[in-house]
Amino acid sequence: MSVCTVCSLKADHPGVVLDDKGVCNLCTMDFAEGLLENYRYTSKVFTEFQQAPQATGEYDCLFMYSGGKDSTYMLDKFVNEYGKRVLAFTFDVPFESVHAAQNIALAKEKIPATFVLDADDDNIKLMMREVFTRKAPKKPGKYLDEKLPCVSCRTFFVLRAILMAYRQKIPYIALCADPQQILTMESNVREVVRDFYKTFGERLADTLFGGELEELLFDEDENLPKIVFPFIATRHEYDPDRIVEELRAKGLYQSSPLETHCTLFPLLNYYSFKNFDCMFYKLNAASHVRSVQRNADYDRNTFSIKFPRSLDLPVVEERLGKVVLAIAAGEGVREDHEAELVDLFQRMDATEDAARFVAASFLDMRTVAADLGIPLG
User: Quick check: pTM over 0.90?
Assistant: First the structure.
């Protein structure tokens, strides 16, 4: 299998094309025009939000709060630095990490925002079951095909947030994706709805949202909330280590980024390995390799999980794939799988405690899959 000589992405990775020098289109930035357009639009909306007067309603923005480090960091800034009146919206994902829930409890104690909890277990499980059991797209596929389960889950609760903001006439929705995640996200509300219909079809989309999404497609632009990506403005200074350090100093964060992952993280890896022969974080890891290759003295991190300089990506990916598929098939010895996973996550810079926490979630993969009605193996 040919791989990119710069970032180690495989030639058959969805959306990846190697040139005659063996360099992939992500490294040569063949798609840069679209990314720049997205950055320009999201930067404009964030500037507009910062300069906007106080909204006529009760809240200036609906803030999507997950309990992760990025959203906790920005929620603190929105309330205590920007002086915004914030409705902190948390969707109670049934796959939530216990550590993320603990961080939310800390924020409620220390940040004077209004917190609201939303939930819809049956419908999000229905959607995820459909995603995991559908046939993989035909190769070569499209960029982000291997992340469809994660993107679908995120889009589900983004749409729940959009509907809440729309009903309450809240003009802005803050979504605290890290700078690299922003590249994978649609920033226009109407397009978010259209893309969801394209992915799941009218019948399932209407079932999941009770037919309410259609109203968003046909209302006037001025009546629709705008999505704000706060990390756009600070993308050049984005540093996950500094963010965690600042939050811990304020008593707002007690976990590592790996520990706040949802419980579907192992299944996301299973989906990627089974359908596309890659680890779930391959694009992120490849981005890290790319930055170090281009400048050995500079490895700016633009995403939530930080990878060590010494990471041997092909070796880690191969080992992780073997253990993930073995667990999914019910093969091998649990203790051996645990030892392998702990070693791999420590190689990815996790502490021993964090590595054991994440390894335990991988060992529980079959139970989680059974609960969702997802066949493995």
Answer: no
